[in-house]
Amino acid sequence: MSQFLPLLVTDIQRTIRDAVVLTLQPEDPKAFAFKQGQYLTFKQDFDGTELRRNYSICAGLDDGVLQVGIKRVDGGAFSTFANEVLKVGDTLHAMPPQGTFSAGLEPDRARNYLGFAGGSGITPVLSILKTVLKREPKSTFTLVYANRAVNTIMFREELEDLKNRYMGRLSVIHMLESGQDIDLFTGRVDQNKCAELFKT
Ligand SMILES: Cc1cc2nc3c(=O)[nH]c(=O)nc-3n(C[C@H](O)[C@H](O)[C@H](O)COP(=O)(O)OP(=O)(O)OC[C@H]3O[C@@H](n4cnc5c(N)ncnc54)[C@H](O)[C@@H]3O)c2cc1C
Known about the structure:
Number of strands: 9
Strand order of the largest sheet: 4-3-6-1-2-5
CATH class of the largest domain: Mainly Beta
CATH architecture of the largest domain: Beta Barrel
Shape: globular
Order of helices and strands: EEEEEHEEHEHEH
CATH topology of the largest domain: Elongation Factor Tu (Ef-tu), domain 3
Distance between the termini: 51 Å
Bound molecules: flavin-adenine dinucleotide
CATH superfamily of the largest domain: Translation factors
Helix content: 10-25%
């Protein structure tokens, strides 16, 4: 049987209008030791119906916190609840971390990582990126990050801070559907766009 364990909500940050980052304190911290790129399955009762939803951990291994980022989906049950109802001090229930979306770390190697993310899909990539920059000091990371517009970019400031902290090792290419001056960075990430990007 699936095991759901309690987590206290200790902080809620609204990073953009339609997304929150929840900081969670598990009652049993050992059960929530995670690998970069893993996700949590939460269960929540909505008018007598139990829903289960997955949210990727967005913290890196060395951040010392357990965090998930939840973007509100129009008409979505859990994401609207997390964005509009949930308060600091509430308790959520989640299964221990799951998932195998990560590359093994090799601290002595100098690797060049390339990550693609769109919208809230940034969360596991952010966890991987932060962990790689910290634990593989010779590696670099290029992130191609697609969003609708500037004001919908989750973790934009955190990514800028990381670029400054790991000077020269993190490149972020923001692809927006609109609002960019340069054609190369406007539109959807498809085969042609990747071919154009890789030329540079
Ligand atoms: C491994 C994994 C990791 C994920 N990580 C993240 C993450 O880090 N951050 C994040 O924000 N999301 C993440 N997601 C997505 C997340 O799990 C949810 O799918 C998302 O938040 C929507 O859930 P919800 O309960 O809010 O919406 P739902 O209630 O599931 O609704 C989704 C959409 O379907 C519509 N809908 C619902 N019921 C009906 C119906 N009967 N008929 C027609 N339309 C209907 C709703 O209006 C809404 O537009 C992840 C998903 C997976 C699988």
